Amino acid sequence: EKGGYEHFMLKEIHEQPKAVQDTVGAYVKDGAIDFTEVGLTDETLKNLERIYIVACGSAYHVGMAARYVLEDMVRIPVEVDLASEFRYRNPILVPNSIVIVISQSGETADSLAALRLAKERGIPVLGIVNVVGSSIARESDYILYTYAGPEISVATTKAYSTQLIATYLLAVQAAKVKGTIDDKRYTDLIAEIQTLPGKIQKTLDDKERIQWFASKYANAKDIFFIGRGIDYAISLEGSLKMKEISYIHSEAYAAGELKHGTISLIEDGILVVGVLTQKNLFEKTLSNMVEVKSRGAYLMGLTTYGNYNIEDTADFSVYVPKTEEYFATSLAIIPLQLMGYYVSVAKGLDVDKPRNLAKSVTVE
Ligand code: M6R
């Protein structure tokens, strides 16, 4: 059942090219996005003035990444909330808005409660859900299924990757109908999304270097992940993967926040992972990496092929293929998933069933 892999997590990591391919294939027909199955019309997208994204855990991290993409591409405000916060803060939901609930299981208690709250207030809900017929899928007004297939490992990988794709497709279609991108850009962005499965595969092919590095750092006590913008969203998920299955304390920080407190934690030998996929933020994050290095941190740099000057600063560098910057999360997350996995294996932990955690959190 594990298809020759030692753990479900490793199997699911390797299923990502297919999961992404299947999700793209479900909604892209002849080079255009088709949301008929979702029930979402161009008319509805055109009238949208605000988007609220609500989710928990990794699905929330998808929302964090999606906000940068949606706001920049579609030019409407996007708010992202943890479901457990949203439901208790009496949120202000404006007309002509939509609430997007992202959930692999479709059964997460707080996410479901957030969905019900939105509906009570008369705001339509778009569910981005993996499990067919789950509660969130049934109660959503629009349903965009991800095609990851069953995910067994508690740590999500392939569902997360397909959720990202769902948000890209939504952004590209909304941008088209709202006229914030032209037809050529629309076609190009879709074509780029279609290259992602191949590029994810290429990233997976480099896994041995990550495995080697992970075994070296398996005894680390703390790991910090830093990045700005989309790279911050990637850092959040990288950090969660690490702590959830390897039990190493890890934190993600918006790189610009380091100086506001966190940098006092940096001491000799602490591992700091810098994520740098966004050109306009590269130098900024790099200078934060220089700062922590001068305080003794050991640096891993995660960037795209071509940015070889990272090696002047980072002690260990990992490269992912180039893609449209909006979609960088899909590639940069792969080495971080592998790192969490291999650290957990090196420590001899129960990778697929980490202590204290359940696959789907159906109680508050
Ligand atoms: O089923 P859901 O997507 O609603 O689950 C949300 C979180 O519980 C989930 O993403 C959790 O954070 C994962 N274990 C992270 O790997």
Rg is 20 Å
Number of strands: 12
**Judging from the principal axes of the Cα atoms, what is the shape?**
globular
- Let me know the largest β-sheet: 5 strands, parallel
Number of helices: 13
Distance between the termini: 32 Å
Q: Pick out the low-confidence regions.
A: none
Instruction: Find the structural class using helix and strand composition.
Output: alpha/beta
**Strand percentage, roughly?**
15-25%
How are the strands of the biggest sheet laid out side by side?
4-3-5-6-7
GO molecular function, one term: glutamine-fructose-6-phosphate transaminase (isomerizing) activity
Subunit structure: Homodimer.
Catalytic activity: D-fructose 6-phosphate + L-glutamine = D-glucosamine 6-phosphate + L-glutamate
Subcellular location: Cytoplasm
Task: Describe what this molecule looks like in 3D.
The chain is α/β, with parallel strands linked by helices and 364 residues long. Helices cover 46% and strands 17% of the residues. The chain has 13 helices and twelve strands. It has helices spanning 8-14, 16-27, 42-47, 57-74, 83-86, 109-120, 135-139, 158-178, 183-205, 207-216, 230-246, 279-293, 329-346; strands spanning 28-29, 32-33, 50-55, 78-82, 97-103, 125-129, 142-145, 222-227, 249-254, 271-276, 298-304, 316-320. The strands form three sheets. It has a five-stranded parallel beta sheet, sandwiched between helices. The protein is globular. The site of 5-amino-5-deoxy-1-O-phosphono-D-mannitol has 16 residues, from helix 4 and helix 11. 5-amino-5-deoxy-1-O-phosphono-D-mannitol (M6R) binds at residues 56-59, 103-105, 108, 111, 154-156, 240, 244, 360-361.
